[in-house]
Amino acid sequence: MIGFDVTLLAHASKTRFGGGGVARVTREIAASLVEIPEVEIRLGTFLGPRWIQEAKLALARGEPKIGPSAMAPAGGQEWIFRFLNKFADDPSRRIDKFLLRFVLRRCRNLLDENWGLRGFDGCDLLHSPFFPIPPKLRNKSRTLLSVMDMIPLRVPQFCDPNFIAWFKKELIPSMGVRDWIHCISESARKDLLQERPDLDPNRVRVVPLAASSRFAPISSAQMDGRMRDRLGIPPGIDYFLSLSTLEGRKNLEGVIRAFLLACKDSRFKSHLVLAGGSGWKTEQIERALQGAGEQAHRIHSTGFVDDSLLPCLYSGAKGFVFLSRYEGFGLPVLEAMACGVPVVASNNSSIPEVVGDAGCLVHCEDVESAAERILVLDSDSSYRGELSAKSLRRAALFSWQNTANELRQLYREILESPA
After folding, report:
1. What average pLDDT does the chain have?
2. Which of 183, 128, 97, 104 lies closest to 7, judged by CA?
3. Are the beta carbons of 253 and 220 closer than 8 angstroms?
4. pLDDT tens across 175-213, in order?
5. Which residues are 147's β-sheet partners?
6. Does residue 64 have a cis peptide bond before it, meaning omega lies within 30 degrees of 0?
């Protein structure tokens, strides 16, 4: 029996943005594992019964959907947590004395500690895609921890200090020298082993991610005409797309500068679409937008984009521009390629592993080279078609089924290896 933690999905269900890329990866891995007959999988949470209902709701929403039967039981104690939640957190309730509310919350937390991890009882191996595995569970079964990236240590200037502190004090020290670790790229593996050279490199394995099967080319005839209206993209214009959380690490200001350089060519008429919710440290992006001058009307910020609109948004673009300063994998690049969109991307961290020879790689700060690539893609339809075909072939090498099968093989190896 394999236990797979979906705590992050329970957390993500409470946010508008669904928890970002790691939550999407957690959902895709869980859904793919559930589909493999040879794997007996149990989904659960490290936070106990009061989060199980949230996790069930999260699994039933969005894509891919996962039925509640895959979830671990809460030990029959959900009613207690429903009662405690009802009175401990709702300020509209009559029980409003500070001390009583404190006691109720404390009771709930103690119950979590005692009952919360029982959903994983009987599991031979426990896989956590994000959170450190609690010591009580580490002592009961074999474990596998996924490490998505080393962003807080490699580029800390672009991270929330609270997340950096958690990463340093909780996640990194939780890894034992003989633990099995799953990394999503060779770059992430290299960075982890540099930070923790005491880890056994033979137990730090790479299993790459994939783009969802819904990311595929959409023809003009199939395009959802409402997509542009909903996202504020003018009808009839060609556009280059950059999709990511709007934060300093993603270097959106570099994308804007490259676009503005391309605009100096009078033959270049395309627009730029920046898609994604706002993140950490956006000041430089805002300054770049303010400096767009007479080209400002050609730059469109959509804000957060619902997953259902992404295939249309990608497919409608002439090219995808991604000048991130560091990635653990680079899922938006692969999604764009799966839609047959040519990419101009950074040549750092994991991005070359994803792009291969199917796109244009430039230094993330070399906006002149990025602008040149944008102009060539804009004007040369033959070159654009060549890169589109290469993108589709490259993206076909990645699938969530492959990811799940590789994880299944890794699970088997862990269970058969000496402790």
Report:
1. 86
2. 128
3. no
4. 999 899 999 999 999 999 999 999 999 999 999 999 999
5. 183
6. yes
Residue 57 contacts residue 19 (beta carbons within 8 Å): no
Domain ranges of the chain: 2-74+116-210+400-416, 226-395
Evaluate if residue 24 carries a pLDDT over 50: yes
Query: Alpha-carbon distance 358 to 344, whole Å?
Result: 10
Q: Do domains 2-74+116-210+400-416 and 226-395 have the same CATH topology?
A: yes
pLDDT at 211: 96
| Amino acid in the structure at residue 182 | H
Both tokens of residue 207?
Answer: 């299993």
CA atoms within 13 A on the CB side of 185: 21
CATH of domain 226-395: 3.40.50.2000
At residue 19, φ and ψ (nearest 5 deg) are 85, 0
Output the furthest CA–CA distance in the chain (Å, rounded).
71
Contact 271, 234 (CB under 8 A): yes
- Provide the residue type at 10 as one letter: A
Instruction: Tell me whether strands 299-303 and 125-128 are parallel, antiparallel or unpaired.
Output: unpaired
Q: Among 37-46, 50-59, 154-163, which is the least confidently predicted range?
A: 50-59
The top-level CATH class assigned to 2-74+116-210+400-416 is: alpha beta
